[in-house]
Amino acid sequence: MRPSGESGPAGFRPTAKHPLAIDTDQPTRDGDFLRIENLVFGYPERTIINGVSMTFRRGAVIGLMGGSGSGKTTILKLIGGQLHPRSGRIVFDGQTVDSRDRTGLYALRRRMGMLFQFGALFTDMTVFENVAFPLREHTSLSDELIRTLVLMKLEAVGLRGAAPLRPSQMSGGMARRVALARATVLDPPLLMYDEPFAGLDPLSLGTIAALIRSLNDALGATSIMVTHDIDESLRICDYVYVLGNGGVIAGEGTPDQMRATTDPFLRQFLFGASDGPVAFHYPAEPLAEALGLASPAPPASDTRGRDVLERPR
User: Fold this and answer.
1) Which domain, by its residues, includes 259?
2) Looking at the domain assignment, is residue 18 inside a domain?
C-alpha cells in the first residue's frame, strides 16, 4: 500500500527514483527476503518472544505494533544479532543470523540500515560527518566520492544545506531526517526503524513517513518499522504484525484487513479503547475491601438454614 495523492516534502515525490536507487526493473528472486521461524527469546524470569514466526518480502514496508514491552524492539535486536534466541532462527536473504559468528554477523550487518529511537546521532559530529560515518567505516571510497554520496543522500531528505550543522542546532524532525540519510547511505537491502515517529510534530511526522515509503521504493529495500502510530503506519505499510501479551502474534494482515478486523483485542489496540480484553485496572482486590468498607461474609449455612457450627468431638 503506497500513499496516494501525496507529494511528501516539497519537491520530493514518494514514487520518484532515488539518486542511488538500484534498478528495480531487474528481476529479483521471488520469495521471502527475511524469515523468522518459531523464535523464542527471554530471560530467566520472563519469556519475551514465544514461538513467533514472520515473513518479510522484498520491497515491502512491514509494521510491527503492540503494547509497550511486547517485544517489538527485541525482534529488531534479534534480527541484527545483538541478542541470541533460545530457539528458532532468523534467515536473512538465505543466511542464518548467528550472533556467535562474529565475522559472518558483521558481514550481514553491512547490509542492514538502522534508524534508532530519536535518531542517535553523534553529537560531536556535523550532519555531514554523521552521514559519512558508515561509508568511512565500511568502505575504502575516496573522500571525493564520499562527499558526493553524502550530499546526494542529504539532498534526498531535503537537508543538503544543513550539512555543516551539528545535531544541537537542528529540530527533532531534522535530526530524524539526518538519521534516515545515515541509515540509507550504504543502500542496504534491509532497513529497520525503531519508533521513527516518536516525539515528532504532525508536519515532521508526515515528512518522515513519506520519506520511509519513498526511499524504500526507490532502493527496492525491505523495511521493518516498529511504531505506535497507528494511522500513519496503516497509511504507508504493506503488511502489519501486532504482538500481544506473552510474546505471541495477536494479529496480522494488510492495512485494510486490520481496519476491518472484528477481533476484540485488535480493535481495542487499533482504535485506542480504554477498556476491553486488555483491562483498564491492574489486578487487585475490590476497592471496598482495600478501604475496609466491605461487609463481613455471612457464615456458611446447612441445608436447614441453620449456621453450620463445628461440633465438638
Assistant:
1) 32-111+188-290
2) no
What is residue 299's predicted lDDT score, i.e. its pLDDT? 63
Give the pLDDT confidence score for residue 302 in this predicted structure. 54
pLDDT at site 135: 92
What DSSP string runs through the chain?
A: ---SS---STT--TTSPPTT---TTS----SEEEEEEEEEEEETTEEEEEEEEEEEETT-EEEEEESTTSSHHHHHHHHTTSS--SEEEEEETTEE--TT-HHHHHHHHTTEEEEBTTB---TTS-HHHHHHHHHHHH----HHHHHHHHHHHHHHTT-GGGTT--GGGS-HHHHHHHHHHHHHTT--SEEEEESTTTT--HHHHHHHHHHHHHHHHHHT-EEEEE-S-HHHHHHH-SEEEEE-TTSSEEEEE-HHHHHT---HHHHHHHHT-SSSSS-SSPS-S-HHHHTT-SPPPPPPB-TTSSB--PPP-
Name the domain count of the chain: 1
- Look at residue 254 in the predicted model and tell me its pLDDT: 92
Q: Which CATH number is 50's domain given?
A: 3.40.50.300
pLDDT of amino acid 70: 81
Question: Could you say which residues of the chain have pLDDT below 50?
Answer: 1-30, 306-311
Q: What confidence tens digit (pLDDT) does each residue in 26-60 have?
A: 333 445 789 999 999 988 888 888 889 999 999 99
Residue 257 lies in a domain: yes
| Residue 53 within a domain | yes
